[in-house]
Amino acid sequence: MKTKNIIIVILAAISIATIYYSMQGSQDDAAYVASIEKERKEKNVLMRSGDESPFSDSVSVFTGLKYYPVDINYRIIANLVPIENKKIVVLATSDGKEKKYLEYAYAEFDLGGEENKLLIFEMIEMGPYRGTLFLAFGDATSGRETYGAGRYLDIRKAPGATSVTLDFNNAYNPYCAYNDNYSCPLPPRENLLTIPIEAGEKVYY
């Protein structure tokens, strides 16, 4: 086979491979978006009919939670920076009380052309959530498009990991965003981002 023909065959193979993997990526993205939208529908069902719903006294007027469109760019792999000498942190709550958490690690990531860092907490109170991780954060949308007292993000614990997924499409409001009878921890000052996180749940009212 002549050299020219070999080059044509190679270029054609590369083109086919590129199209194939592009289609695979599109299918994966579509499946991811579908899974997030499915979770949102299921959460609306729980909010409308669950016994522990913050809307239990007003389900007749519940109109469904509000969200930003799912955006894969807000599914971020952040560097997990361990904290050597962990200490107890006291967070103020929405009702003027306090709750204690243990420092777990910092999540560092680039977004909006800026280096950002969020402190992840480990729950230490006795109960079913003891040992689980979460972070409370605020951003440039807080008080405008999203709940003014910040939003939460659950974090999966993976001992020994050097990175962590921060999927802001799953960012959600604490229950005190819907009902004043709940006590919710507020984000620490260091978790107040200056950039907008236009993903996840919006303000309900």
Order of helices and strands, N to C? HEEEEEEE
Low-confidence stretches: 2-24
Which structural class fits the helix and strand makeup? alpha+beta
Shape call: globular
CA radius of gyration: 21 Å
How many DSSP H or I helices?
1
**What is the tally of beta strands?**
7
Q: Could you tell me the mean pLDDT?
A: 87
Let me know the largest β-sheet.
7 strands, antiparallel
Cα-to-Cα separation, first versus last residue? 70 Å
- The fraction of residues in strands falls at 25-35%
Helix-residue proportion: 10-25%
Protein architecture, described:
- The protein is an alpha+beta fold.
- It has one helix and seven strands, in the order H-E-E-E-E-E-E-E.
- Strands 1, 2, 3, 4, 5, 6 and 7 form a seven-stranded antiparallel beta sheet that branches.
Name the features.
205 residues; 7 strands; 7-stranded antiparallel β-sheet; 23% helix; 25% strand; single chain; 2 domains; alpha+beta; 1 helix; disordered N terminus
Task: Write a short abstract of this structure.
With 205 residues, the protein is of the alpha+beta class. It contains one helix and seven strands, in the order αβββββββ.
Q: Secondary structure elements and their pairing?
A:
Blueprint: H1 3-49, E1 75-82, E2 88-92, E3 98-111, E4 114-123, E5 133-137, E6 151-155, E7 163-167
Antiparallel strand pairs: 1-3, 1-7, 2-3, 3-4, 4-5, 5-6
